[in-house]
């Protein structure tokens, strides 16, 4: 149940960001749900491999290269999902940064709410 809520929250954020951020377009809410599912799968399977292969660059930049990896994951998602379009690398970087910040806030609020509702 928690995974479904996270996917739906991410889809809402993706859809809202596509309306406010120039250079990002989502065809509809269904495409936003597909984007959130694909992003979750890419973050589980592809992102650890990218982090492993770029570990020296990540260490040299004190972890800032992870932002580049996040943007690259967004671009891979854009390639895989036909209803999702990102205009450039810099837009993907900004989109991933804002998405990560909003997700961390929403997920922490949902977790806090879940703790209060437990018996």
Q: What does this protein structure show overall?
A:
Helices cover about 80% and strands about 5% of the residues. The protein has about 120 residues and is mainly alpha-helical. The chain has one domain. It has a two-stranded antiparallel ribbon. Helix 1 runs antiparallel to helix 6 and helix 5 (about 65-80) packs across helix 6. It is globular. It contains six helices and two strands.
Outline of the structure:
The protein is mainly α and 119 residues long. Helix content is 79%, strand content 5%. It has one domain (15-107).
Features:
119 residues; mainly alpha; two-stranded antiparallel sheet; globular
What is the topology?
Layout: H1 2-20, E1 24-26, H2 29-45, H3 47-53, H4 55-60, H5 65-80, E2 84-86, H6 89-117
Antiparallel strand pairs: 1-2
Helix pairs in contact: 1-2, 1-6, 2-5, 5-6
Report the biggest beta sheet as strand number plus sense, adding barrel if it closes: 2 strands, antiparallel
Order of adjacent strands in the largest pleated sheet: 1-2
Number of DSSP E strands: 2
Q: Structural class of the helix and strand makeup?
A: mainly alpha
Count the DSSP helices. Answer: 6
The total number of structural domains is 1
Silhouette: globular
| Low-pLDDT runs | none
Rounded mean pLDDT score: 93
First-last Cα distance = 17 Å
Taking Cα atoms only, what radius of gyration do you get, to the nearest Å? 15 Å
Output the helix-strand order.
Answer: HEHHHHEH
């Amino acid at each position: 149940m928690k995974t479904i809520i996270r996917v739906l929250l991410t889809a809402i954020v993706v859809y809202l960001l596509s309306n406010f951020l120039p250079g990002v377009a989502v065809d509809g809410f269904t495409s936003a749900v597909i984007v959130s599912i694909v992003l979750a799968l890419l973050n589980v399977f592809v992102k650890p491999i990218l982090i492993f292969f770029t570990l020296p660059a990540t260490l040299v930049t004190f972890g800032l290269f992870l932002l580049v990896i996040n943007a690259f994951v967004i671009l891979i998602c854009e390639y895989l999902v036909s209803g999702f379009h990102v205009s450039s690398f810099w837009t993907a970087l900004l989109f991933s940064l804002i998405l990560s910040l909003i997700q961390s806030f929403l997920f922490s609020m949902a977790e806090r709410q879940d703790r209060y509702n437990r018996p």
